[in-house]
Amino acid sequence: MNNRFFTSLAVRNIKSNKQLYVPYLLSSTAIITMFYLMSSLLTNKFVQERSSVLPTLFAMGTIVIGIFSFIFILYINSFLIKRRKKEIGLYGILGLEKKHVAKILFFETLITTFVSIAGALIVGQVFGRLFFMLLNYLLRLPTNINYSTSPMTALITAGLFAGVFAITYLYNVSQFTFANPIKLLKGKKEGEKEPKGSILLFILSIVLIGWGYGISLTIADPLSAISKFFLAVLLVIMGTYLLFITGSIYILKALKKNKRIYYRPGPFISISGMLYRMKQNAVGLANICILASMVIIAVSTTVTIFVGTEETLENRFPKENNMTLNGTDLSQEELNTQFVGLQGKFREEAQKMELKVTDMESYRYLTVFGNLEGNRLVFEEGFPAANVPLYIQVLLLEDFNEMAGKQIELSNGEALYYHSKGALNQQNIVIGDQEFKLKEADYDFGGEAAIVTTMVLIVPELSQIEMISEIYQQELPQANPASIDAFIGWNTDGTNAQKKALGKQMKQLSSASESLSFESREAFREEWYSMNGGFLFLGIFLGLLFTIGTVLITYFKQVSEGFDDREKFQIMQKVGLDKDMVHESTRSQIVWMFLLPIVTATIHVIFAYPIVRKMLTVFGVTSEITWLLSFTGVVVAFSAIYWMIYRITSRVYYSIVK
């Protein structure tokens, strides 16, 4: 027998089992498309240029989707091969050797692999471009975001999933290699043994999820959040799979032991049926839970970033106009002269344009990095560093009093301090040979918007700031010079057009000196909305991808369970159960499967809030209310969509069972 014979037989098998293969091919194509589109975002120009955080997050997301896709394809393949065990057993009865059956399965796998991967790459190209065009039209952002991919992405996708389908082939071959044909003929009718469950696996699931939650709850700063987010996600995903597989079994067995609940017709059928199929059920439920979590996090965070655009602008630009005077190449006398002169110059320029300066804030400052060891400040190099040190700004008391509207007096051995983590335990701080007695400053320096832990020291004399700068340079001679700089920020009255015109004038003024740099909130507003609108764009795109995955898994799950339950319920009706009781028992199972993933996903996202909030700080969002409202809205919206999915797929289930 040549390969043409086996190929034609494989094609005939796929056609004769189209009721099984069509959902299988559609599901595998869709899940590969999801991975392909996700990995394509890694090479997207918007993702690469807008933020250094995005490529890292999408790389993590691609790995998570890859792991999920692997599990999902194995899951739907196990259902397929289970339904075909009788057919494979018949081959043995008819005289085909196992190596011949293996060849048939090889060509079947080869065909399904080619159709799934080729279909996914084509659908990914078409869907990606069309959906990007649609979102560009609906959101009407100032700048269009174009869909892009690369041949390397397509090759990686094809190679990865060719390997996944190779594993499914080995699994399928193993199903008949170690079984006799007679047993295979009964394979579809054989029920699964009652899962025993493992207390160790159940405890491990709680430990893994608790570990992931713990990382989120104890995260120190936004940069740590980015580096540890992927680990937390993997831990929760692994824990979720184990929890659904083992935890659900313990719950069902506990219900089974409760005689008041179990020994009633409806619960008896539902509990016993779910218990015997829970291993397969649990994987599907865990998949839905993970995808639901991804939808909620992706959409709610990007909605938060877009809704909080004004907040991010205010955090990024403390005032409408922000001028920084770099003191690296200036003497202290030159710095002080320009510091005072520029404030008058800005008022004059505003007056020429018939604008009035309001809320001017100005101060001189020194920026250094270090850590507190006891009460001694030990200097360290700043960014980039493996362990981000404490970010320290040293201000002059005179400038602080004017900025805060206070009249505080300090002696030479005293200093005010602000720490983003709250009050310090230390009563004094030692810098070099100088010791300062600390008093907490009653002023908010906006530490919530800081990416790293921040401390502000306020000293009475400018000479003391110079002394700290010299100590920093002595301890870290290889580091960049720590210069005393100055900041001047102010608001004005007038229209937005007038403010933009003033911003352009200030930009021209600053370009005349290498020591000056100017930023205007109004000038950045359009670009900021465009960038945050792009984040919303990506969030909606990912949310739709994950929702499609949820639909596919739910549909495939209902179909597989319908085929498993059909013969059982036909038998139940023959022994006297009416259709209403059968319908009620199946309804309770479906409701269970509907509620459990969405409730667990919501709990996951609630515990993910601390780490997500830290990551949002990187984008300048600090408002808890904004995220809470976005989160609540997305959960309600996704629950409504999921309810519609449930209603549609449950009809498919009932039609199969009946």
UniProtKB/TrEMBL annotation:
Keyword Amino-acid biosynthesis attached = no
Tell me which Gene Ontology terms the entry assigns under biological process: transmembrane transport
Which positions, given as ranges, span the membrane? 21-42, 54-76, 104-132, 152-178, 199-217, 229-252, 284-307, 535-556, 590-612, 624-645
**Does the keyword field hold Chloroplast?**
no
Q: Which residues form the ABC3 transporter permease C-terminal domain?
A: 62-181
Localization: Cell membrane
Keywords, A to Z?
Cell membrane, Membrane, Transmembrane, Transmembrane helix, Transport
Q: Which domain of life is it from?
A: Bacteria
This protein's membrane topology, according to the annotation, is: Multi-pass membrane protein
Q: Name one GO cellular component term.
A: plasma membrane
Which InterPro entries does UniProt cross-reference here?
ABC-4_Integral_Memb_Prot, ABC3_permease_C, ABC_permease_BceB-typ
Question: Which PANTHER family does the record associate with it?
Answer: ABC TRANSPORTER PERMEASE (PTHR46795:SF3), ABC TRANSPORTER PERMEASE-RELATED-RELATED (PTHR46795)
Recorded family membership? Belongs to the ABC-4 integral membrane protein family.
Name it: ABC transporter permease
- What organism does this protein naturally occur in? Planococcus glaciei
